[in-house]
Pyrroloquinoline-quinone synthase (Roseovarius atlanticus), 249 residues
Amino acid sequence: MTQSREEFEARLRKIGAERYHDLHPFHDRLHGGDCTPDQVRAWVLNRYYYQHTIPMKDAAFMSRVEDPDLRRAWRSRIEDHDGTAENEGGIKRWLRLAEAVGLDPAYVASREGVLPATKFACDAYVRFVRDKTLLEAVASSLTELFAPKIHANRIEGLLKNYDFADDSSLSYFKTRLKEAPKDVAFGLAWVLDHADTQEKQDAAANALIFKTDVLWSQLDALWSAYVEPARIPPGGWQPGEGLLLERAS
């Protein structure tokens, strides 16, 4: 049976409450100050691959949209990450974080050393948005509903527990606290407007579950490679690689 607008929104929010990656134990370690410098670097390096794919995902989505109003509304997402003349963009802010933790930004931007599972998860997200219905593609972005909480917790935890953390290095998260509410308000309203049958609601909910799996699997890969039992797969970043020269010496 088709759910009411209010019931369906509650269903989407329940998915986040049960499956969003803020529940992953890696974030407890990170925000609690229990990660080693190399574990923080591994997280920054691998998360960059996700940041790198977000504007590609959004461009793939826009290439399929025939409605200019929807394209216009979605375009700012690419600009938020890639930057404009007035806004340096999220990718550059993330590279500033990489430099703050001792990684060479050029090395991080090269995407060398990214874990295979990170690549598979992020690339699968791009393919999902490219190949699924527009409703499913938009619904997969609704993890943004739950992002402000994790960004706020991350800012607080990193500032409290790590010497590298300051306004400059954490500017990505602080900026997303301002950008994300706009994006999620539009995306949520669009999904609620267009998921008008049980079949469409089920598809949208499953798309959001898929996206939570994408985020969760990246942290599982980090945990396996760098926390315990710390088995770094072939091609994965090895501590000591890609460091700034002054940190490596």
In short: The first helix runs from residue 5 to 19. Residues 14 and 20 are 10 Å apart (CA to CA).
